[in-house]
Amino acid sequence: MLIIQIILYFTLIFNLLSCLPIDTESTMTHNDDFNTTFSSIKSIENLTSDEIKPELGVFEYLNYTTFYYLTFSPTGQYLFFVKQHPLWYKYTYEHSLWLYNTETEKETLITKDLYSYIKPQWSPSGNYIALFLTKQPVTNITNDHEIWLEPFDFFKSYIFLYSVDSKEFLSIGIKYQIPKVFAWSRDDSSIYFVNDESNKYAYNSNTIYRIDFNRKNSTISTEIHSLKNISFSISEFLFFPSENKLVFTSTSTAIKNFDDSEIYSIDLQNLRSVTRLTNNKIEENQLQLSSDGKNVLFSVGVVLHSAPSNSAQGFYMLNLTNEQTTHFKNYFMGNIMGYAPKAEGGVYILGQWKTNVGIYSQKSSDEGWIYHPGFVGTYASIVSSSNPNCSIAFVYSESQLPMEIYCANNINDLSSAKQITNENELFTQRNLPQIEVYNWTNPDDHRIIEGILHYPPGKFHWTNLPLLVLIHGGPNLASLNQLYGNPYNWAPLAASNGWLVLEPNYRGSTGYGDEFIAELRGKPLSLAGKDILSGVDQLIKDGIADPSKLTVGGCSFGGSLTNWLITQTERFNAALSCSSSFEHVSAWGTVDAPDFYKYWFNGLPWEIPRVYQNEAPIYQMDKVRTPTYICTGGTDERVPASQSYILKRALDSREIPAKLQIFSNEGHQFSSPMSGFTKITEELLWLKKYGKGDN
Fold first, then answer.
1. Is there a contact between 128 and 108 (Cβ–Cβ < 8 Å)?
2. Residue 595: enclosing H or E segment and its boundaries?
3. N- to C-terminal Cα separation, the chain
4. What is the mean pLDDT of each successive set of 10 residues along the chain, which is 695 residues long?
5. Would you say residue 417 lies in a domain?
6. Which of 199, 232, 250 is the last residue before a domain boundary?
7. Please, are residues 118 and 178 in contact by the beta-carbon 8 Å criterion?
């Protein structure tokens, strides 16, 4: 193992030394002569305020910890959360579960082997956490111990119960594959779970089970009951104690049809029938019990398909007694990123407005939103409890601060929240790029567009800078004021390598109103492309960007826009196309989400063939002159690798420099941090070779 680590270390050193910041011919607009280049792999030191911080390296940027699954215990004394961190020498990510005691303010590791696809859940009493693991638990360094109440069998799955008091793991064999979803029953003695049995029945089929368990001394007895076979795929799953019902959402197995998503219930006293509770033809998600346990809450994101007129983004409350759904009043023009039931009633809301995400609250369905000032940046998760030691916990970051978890005692004093994790401290010891919001106008329809500018460290407000336009995917996503190390949105790292980076929130981006999104329909690449090129023109006009050193790149829809933009202008010296679409009819026929094309193109290929052709880069390849680096996952189902092969062949046919890199075992999202490292390293090398227009 040590030999592997040493080899990896020197491999990283070699690659990083190949990606030192580019030289520029930029000019200054103020008295700041800081222009020192540091090695990307300088070791972490205790820096004093008088020392100059080194700039961010590739490995450092990707060696980032993210947080998710924040949940308070029923009493609010404990908060568990999951950390995701790269395991470089294993070519994967570690998912560890942690427990934070709000009274002692101490953090305890539960496991480093969490099966991350299923969210851990507190038992009704708060004495246990139910979870799934990727391998048998082992004793940790604190000499805490685990007990096994039956022999571990690698040929069947286990539900693990972690005791908060004894710090023991109890293993409960369930004989089947790891379930899709599960939910505790009324007490700590049974769990409901769902298995996918489509292969068994040769059609789309899920089966609901209940496992009862009883522990006596050193033995445990279990009994599994098959309750109901459901003829569709279950996505989210919730036990509703006051009505003794199970509530769940349906979903298509391949995201083929948004109409497949609805909410259903089944009465545990009468298992013969399944009741459909919604008929919205929209994707309901984030099922949660209201704080009083009398209603089911759920959210609806941006509606990206034809739906009834009463279907809208926002929060809904479902009364299972009368089966009536109430829409929470919503005058917010931005995007809803998440929510949490308030302990005292109502909900907390994470609302994105333009480039920031803030915290709002709503007391009841007929009252308006209340904005709660605090940190300016991006709140990524929020949970609530009745414990005064930490009544609100959230994940937060901004361009100069990496993602961490915070505890607040007062929603009206968020700026006094206490940081309870420090996993990404390294980023506070680096000289990070400064950002600003930049606005421009699309001259065709006079729409104001904005984006985020990342200046190279020490060059804030310099002029004549080499430009990288880095385009977000989606399109119904947005570039935000946050610091989040990942291989797709790597503007801070590109800026640290000498590039002025523009992240445009083009038409279709969230956070600017429903109309801003809807305007993209029927012209998804041409309109977004015009928005972006207008921004480039304005940067040149303002003297900020060097017109001779322009580059462009992006992943997913951002990669598709990259392919489009190099057919619209010869000004880009280099392009970076990642997991992108190139010819839309073949893409529609092979992707796992064909409704994407039906919505954004306003129809199916044979209904509007002209739109599919006019919006496809392949039919304008005669205009392309830009050297292009292409990469994609070999098993990508969202945008199949065949699209990248077509792009590479088209560039080769035009005798334009191109490189295609296939990550054979990767999908649309990389599962190995080394794939992300290789991707960014190759992209920086490509920019270094072609970006300045010397070749």
1. no
2. helix 595-600
3. 43
4. 43 42 35 30 37 91 96 96 96 97 96 94 96 75 37 66 92 83 94 80 77 80 90 90 92 54 91 87 84 87 50 78 84 89 91 97 89 96 93 97 96 95 97 98 97 98 98 97 97 98 98 94 97 98 98 98 98 98 96 92 97 97 97 96 98 98 95 97 98 77
5. yes
6. 199
7. yes
